DNA sequence: GAAGACTACATGCAGATGCATCTAATGCAA
DNA sequence: TTGCATTAGATGCATCTGCATGTAGTCTTC
């Protein structure tokens, strides 16, 4: 693995001409892929955050959490922070705070779990379900517009 | 491939009930695409930021700017903020501050442009070129590891 | 069952971001 | 020329983020 990387780097060097940014095909592809990803992500995320905030008072992260809660645990829509964390692209601390914000807005509530008293269940409230339902179309529309 | 996805989505449809997330096939694909994008972006960006910062004292945004400067304007490697902004996924204000940080570290300098005195040229210093050259392999390696 | 390692979540803190706004320069119209 | 709209870039501000750490509960080993 390490060997492969080094060999690849050597090959790329061989194809480089000094002033003109040439890099090996593989490496260029990689960078292009990354830039493309970065561009798509950024414009979509920003649009999402702006629209959701403006129309529904939700940040993109907040919606992401609501969305996962709606989708998971079909009947009770409760998840341990732990589980939620695996489904959402947020650090543990960021998730903790997003949930705190959602709770402050009454969209979610925390419940201790009896079996492991370190754990916290996060559960949607009715208001949370409603807000999510209201915001989902906006979310999908923005995705459609940006990822077409 | 496409077919497989659609079949999977169809199955989801069959299991869906009215209150619980029913939406069209296309829409599901869209959301899946977005989640995938989000996941790739996040892990890659975080790894990039961590590694570059630790090994070369550069944030991911700083590297991005250095990278674009290295690549553009092949001979003098100077770009107007404006142009730089189009190539980089940062708001105008964020870019302004990244450049300020880079300048404070001596990796870049700002120059007024005579023809339009509102404009600012950003130009790499030798130190900037060196730092970029040193960091680029780390950058490519992280990309390779995360976007494989 | 006591001590120490480990896990789940919260929080202090420093830093980065975007939005709105400010300043200065340019361009256009009368 | 004067005046107004526009553009380039900087900056104040609120907010969000991750890292490091703190606190409380659990598991393991003796």
UniProtKB/TrEMBL annotation, chains A, B:
<dbReference type="InterPro" id="IPR036390">
    <property type="entry name" value="WH_DNA-bd_sf"/>
</dbReference>
<dbReference type="GO" id="GO:0003700">
    <property type="term" value="F:DNA-binding transcription factor activity"/>
</dbReference>
<dbReference type="InterPro" id="IPR036388">
    <property type="entry name" value="WH-like_DNA-bd_sf"/>
</dbReference>
<dbReference type="InterPro" id="IPR011991">
    <property type="entry name" value="ArsR-like_HTH"/>
</dbReference>
<feature type="domain" description="HTH marR-type">
    <location>
        <begin position="27"/>
        <end position="148"/>
    </location>
</feature>
<dbReference type="GO" id="GO:0003677">
    <property type="term" value="F:DNA binding"/>
</dbReference>
<dbReference type="GO" id="GO:0006950">
    <property type="term" value="P:response to stress"/>
</dbReference>
<protein>
    <submittedName>
        <fullName>DNA-binding MarR family transcriptional regulator</fullName>
    </submittedName>
</protein>
<dbReference type="InterPro" id="IPR023187">
    <property type="entry name" value="Tscrpt_reg_MarR-type_CS"/>
</dbReference>
<dbReference type="InterPro" id="IPR039422">
    <property type="entry name" value="MarR/SlyA-like"/>
</dbReference>
<keyword id="KW-0238">DNA-binding</keyword>
<keyword id="KW-0805">Transcription regulation</keyword>
<keyword id="KW-0804">Transcription</keyword>
<dbReference type="InterPro" id="IPR000835">
    <property type="entry name" value="HTH_MarR-typ"/>
</dbReference>
<dbReference type="Pfam" id="PF12802">
    <property type="entry name" value="MarR_2"/>
</dbReference>
